[in-house]
Amino acid sequence: GPCEIGNDVMFGPEVHLMAGYHRTDLIGSTIQESGPGQRATIVIEDDVWVGARVTVLKGIRIGEGAVVGNGSIVTTDVPPYTIVAGAPSQVRKLRFSDQDLRKHLAARGRTRSAIEEVIARRKAN
Question: Structure pTM?
Answer without folding.
Answer: 0.92
